[in-house]
Specification:
This protein is mostly beta strands. Among the domains are: 92 residues, Immunoglobulins (Immunoglobulin-like, Sandwich), CATH 2.60.40.10; 124 residues, no CATH class; 79 residues, no CATH class. Helices cover 4% and strands 40% of the residues. It has five helices and 54 strands. A hairpin with a 3-residue loop joins β6 and β7. The longest helix has 8 residues.
Amino acid sequence: MALCATLIFFSAHCQFVRAGDIADLMSVELYPTISNAGVEAHYFGQNKENAAVSIRYRVVGTDNFLIGHPPALVAQYGFVGSIFNLLPDTDYEVEISLSISGEVVTQQIATMRTRPDSPPPIPPDGRQIFVDIVNGKAVNPGTRESPLASIQSAVSLAKAGDIVRVMPGIYRESITVRRKGAQTRPIYLIAEGEGVILDGSDPDIGVASEWINHGDGIYSVKYRYSSAYLAIEDLRLYDYGSLDDLKQENGRQPGKNGLIKGGFYIDQAKSRLFLRLPDHSAPTGREVYVARLDSAIQLNSSSHIVVRGFEIRYFGASEFGSVGIDLRSTAESWIQDNDIHHVNYGIRVRNSASAMRNVIEDNRLRDTGVWTWDWHSVKQHTPEGIGIGISQGRGNVVRRNRIEGFFNGILAGNFHDHDPSIAHDTDILDNHLSKLGDDGLEVEGACINVRLLGNRIKGVFSAVSLTPVSKGPVWVVRNVIDDYRAWALKIGNGNVGWLYLYHNTAYPHPGYPDAQIMRPPVPFGYMIARNNIWLSNRYMFEFKGKELLGPVDLDYDVLWTNGPVTDQQYRFKWLGEHHKNRFSLTMATGLELNGIERQPEFRDAENGDFMPRNGSVMIDAASLVHGVNTLHFLGDAPDIGALEYNLDDR
């Protein structure tokens, strides 16, 4: 019922049709999230190349329509667009107009309701089930006075509206939830205060193990299990595939001795765990965490579950099984305010299209070690983990999370499966991502209406990876990229899906002279950019290919390279041709006709403040983009870049 209330399908009713045109030219679908909505118009008539769709919208009961961003025509799919910055839990009226050769031939009006901003409050009559690892017993009924001893026992009893309250303590268990709550009465899994810890490590290692010294910093202890994750105190160590590789510290790259200092290797035939610390010191007396369990909390074919407030740590016994919270074919659940660290994968949404309409918010996810390791030693190996991954389902929302130290930050899509249902209408907004070995935001696959909005990305190899998007549109809007080391935008694998890049700010790490905005290695297309601030240490744009696969329209951007400026220095390379400045690029390609080639003035870029400075050329200089920047700007026009200058400072 909840889905039907917000997902509207209907056939076109033509209010006016040109002579000779056919009725029922269009069906429309609206798909709201909490603060945005997808709009899809599927056109069945002739002359599709001359067709266009426009959107207007308003809160039900108000007078004036607002103009939305024009939808994109997605090949073999239809017209697809998004409406941004909506109020949660609010009814909207949406007008969709179809034009042929500039003349409106049919128009539809539909209503939708955005989703609530928070889960339903805990019902006062809900049954409470208490868990206490210190004072509980397996035979207890789960009351406050007689709590259960395990979380799994409690969740196996829970029904819609029940509240599982977990008291502080260290719980060494993997929990599987196969229950369903209800839309107004979820099942709540709540950590009561600080110190409610799910720990996947082997308690028999700890600090009490008797280590054998083999010399040259190699120590071993008897261990009969397999594990792909080990940390000593807070530091994760690299998992080597052989004892020889560990001795050479080659990061699984023969001949590159000393590449990754320290690590571990488990010889299952000898039932021994070999360990070398980065400084070759002894592990005796130090906390060593070896993962025995794979996942902390798995929601399996569940719905309407709220998970809140847990500390989750040291999971990852198998090579790719390490997950903090795993949503498998699970819908309409809330993952809130959890502290997840020392896992390979923080939170996953996967398995089937029914993994939909979940909200992952206000979590803190952290790993260590990976950020400092060689990229090639991590790629396609155990540590190639991700903070949050959405690889199935529609309408999932990932917001206000802090992610640090993983290989990748947030994934939406599936590189190997371009099914349009995967990550459809996904919102990734207001997240803070830092110290990532590869991509900050990674979007790949069909990726219809994936929205990357207002994220802060700092200290990454590449900030936004779009390799490839096969349908789109993907919206990259008002993100701040600081200290990127390779590319602000990774465009590759023949991207042919629509990309809209609006009001982003990208600032390279000064210590990486090859850092640049983008360097597509093969032909691509279908990219529109407006009102961005692009800073580079090399070429701003470098594209060696001789052809494009579709339209590319870049304009109204502030462009600057920190590279050395000489008579031989070129700032752009496009379609294989060099250009010394923005004017040369424009004359040859038509790109950046209104671009500004000037060093942008920020208030304090070195300390991460990318607000325009008073008097900056970026203030009031942006092009108007309906549905994106026509509301809530200060001054005579929007400012270029991710942040709007504070009117009080003028």
